[in-house]
Amino acid sequence: MRTRSVAPGVHGDDEVLRLLRRRRDTGRGPRRHADGQRLALVVGGGGMRGAYAGGMVHALDEAGLAGCVDEVWGSSAGAFVGTALVLGHGADAARIFPEDMACREFIDPRRMGSRRPMVSLDHLLDRILVDSRPTEWSSLVHSPVPLRVLVTRAGDLTPHVLTDLPDGPTWKSAMRATAAIPLLAGPPVRIGDDDWIDGSVGDPLPVTRALRGGATHVLALMTRTVDELVTPAGSDVRAPLWARSLDRLAPGLGRMAQDSARHGETLSLLADAAHPDRAGAHLLTLAPHTSAGVRGLTTDRARVADAARIGFETVRDVLDERAVA
């Protein structure tokens, strides 16, 4: 097993890339691979940090690798980016963040404390994904690459997976649910007998779930550099106002909603090839090679566009480097 140490851009097992290339070269398409392997793409979220993942997905699509995965996992922004890949909208996955989402109609801190959420999922789902980037949710019902959307049960903050949903409206509700955070991005969403909120609260990067679900290979797309993921010991960074407000609503929710606080729990899995949850599976993690300074609520179009570019370059450079190797 060839691995590389945790470093900006890449860490893990080259066999994941080799499998992707072998599948692309056979030209068989989704669900027609005859290699006996199961390759999962796991997409990280984090609000506008999703621009990094959007750029990565764009690069995978441009390289002809989008149809080479067997399933896509994502929570919050990662679920939306994963949807774009599944539906063949790789370029839009990168463009939507700076061109459509980096605006006050979508994110406006001035709405904090009002009856309207700071993040308008209505604007995203009913305007952007209808007018600017039309999305046919019913296409997910029969998609050859299944989408697994992480949500968090509002009652006990436990993570769950929504997949194999019956129709377009239910899929649209699932996408709203995976991004909904009370006070910040809207109230819980009722699907079935439960109310659901942002998937990243319960599981911001569901690599372990993909592995336990039977994946033999996992490609994980991160939306933070390694330096941003690892908080120095002894640091005392004050939580933002919206997170403190959530903690008053439900103790612990504010910290959990800051998905960086939970990424640390998966770092040992990502970095250690002998981790018991990996059980011999092949795991490759791609993180942005540098930071554009984008946070979850950033609306600076230039920075967000830079993040998408960095994500694209990260995947392109890794693919070029491994091709030469």
Give a structural overview.
- With 325 residues, the protein is of the alpha/beta class.
- The chain contains 13 helices and nine strands.
- It has helices at 15-26, 50-62, 77-86, 90-101, 121-132, 168-177, 199-202, 207-212, 226-229, 241-249, 253-257, 260-271, 301-324; strands at residues 10-12, 39-43, 71-75, 147-153, 159-162, 189-191, 194-197, 217-221, 282-286.
- Strands 1, 2, 3, 4, 5, 6, 7, 8 and 9 form a nine-stranded mixed beta sheet that branches.
- The protein is globular.
A few lines on this structure:
The chain is built from 13 helices and nine strands. It is α/β, with parallel strands linked by helices and 325 residues long. Strand 4 and strand 5 form a beta hairpin.
Q: What is the average of the pLDDT values?
A: 86
Cα shape = globular
Question: Given the structure, what is the number of helices?
Answer: 13
Helix amount: 40-55%
Structural category is: alpha/beta
Measured by DSSP, the beta-strand proportion falls in 5-15%
Gyration radius over CA: 18 Å
| DSSP, total strands | 9
**Largest sheet entry:** 9 strands, mixed
Task: Give the CA-CA distance, first to last residue.
Answer: 15 Å
The H/E string reads EHEHEHHHEEHEEHHEHHHHEH
Uncertain regions spanning at least 5 consecutive residues: 1-7, 232-236
